[in-house]
Amino acid sequence: MRKLKTALVCGDGGFIGAHLVKQLKMEGFWVRGVDLKYPPFASTKADDFIIGDLRDKDLVWNVIDQNFDEVYQLAADMGGAGFIFTGNNDADIMHNSALINLNVVKACCVRKVKKVFYSSSACIYPEHNQMNPNDPLTSEESAYPANPDSEYGWEKLFSEHLFLAFKKNYELDVRIARFHNVFGPEGTWIGGREKAPAAFCRKIAEAEDGTMIEMWGNGNQTRSFLYIDECLIGIRKLMDSADFFGPVNIGSNEMVPINQLAEMIMGIAGKNLEIKHIEGPLGVQGRTSDNTLIKKKLNWEPTASLKDGLEKTYYWINARIQDNVNHDYGSIN
């Protein structure tokens, strides 16, 4: 009888982590999940789920108790612009996420985990390369000289170096991806940590036709958004690569102004709404995924249209609103 491959997903209670566990189970893995909370919108599919705080070194050693075939480190203190760019959460973001990564990478090394995935972020790219909303620079090598626009980005950059140092000094097989605005059903959509697609899906679903929604900034700032299913494909392709370890962008290159993002969702909802532009935290003026390297190394890049992903996300969020679903959205993982 063939032995099942084993995987650990740190951050199983989060959006990407919960989807990743389902993907790994479909591929035949035995999966352990760990988080401060269970996934809020569906029961975990993990074979074993541990409620725990990965900032606790003893907890991490109990969770990483064997030489897993694959460990996925997705746990972080994170959220959308309303959480990252206010400046009010900088110390917690840096301390909590760095401590989690320090604990996890050390335990993976000692337990001789076969392969480790670390989820970095497009937020590591220099602010000065993303001031033109129509022509941002996000090729992987452009990360240096470093100048992220947030403490979240600085911590991600530090942790990339942390994992790469363990690869160099202890031959830990690490894989690093820089995610670009991943969205989809079962993601946070209320409570202050939601990202732009979910926030506008919620606002538009709640608004009466002919009324108004608010938007931070003038709406000319640009972004690309990656649907969750394509994110999972990219993760698995990177993990299955024989020798390519990154860091590499995993994101869409379909870049749109935020005004257009809101208008696309209005079209899906069949609503005509006015946009009121107000002051608020914004981040860089432009960001999209440069997919040159991932196409070269993995012979793949995301191709799903933004509209298709927004349709699925809007209908899911609208159903939650119609059902008056109420959840606890606070988590650091």
* Helix and strand run: EHEEHEHHEHEEHEEEHEEHEHH
The fraction of residues assigned to DSSP E strands is: 15-25%
The biggest beta sheet is recorded as:
7 strands, parallel
Number of helices: 10
Low-confidence stretches: 325-333
Strand line-up of the largest beta sheet: 3-2-1-4-5-6-11
* Class from secondary-structure proportions: alpha/beta
- CATH hierarchy, class of the largest domain: Alpha Beta
Distance between the termini: 36 Å
Say which CATH homologous superfamily of the largest domain is assigned. Answer: NAD(P)-binding Rossmann-like Domain
Shape, per Cα inertia axes: globular
CATH architecture label name of the largest domain:
3-Layer(aba) Sandwich
Number of strands: 13
Give structural notes.
With 333 residues, this protein is α/β, with parallel strands linked by helices. Helix content is 37%, strand content 16%. Strands 3-2-1-4-5-6-11 form a seven-stranded parallel β-sheet, with helices on both faces. Strands 7-10 form a two-stranded parallel ribbon. β1 (6-10), α1 and β2 form a beta-alpha-beta unit. It is globular, with a radius of gyration of 19 Å. Mean pLDDT is 94; it is low at 325-333.
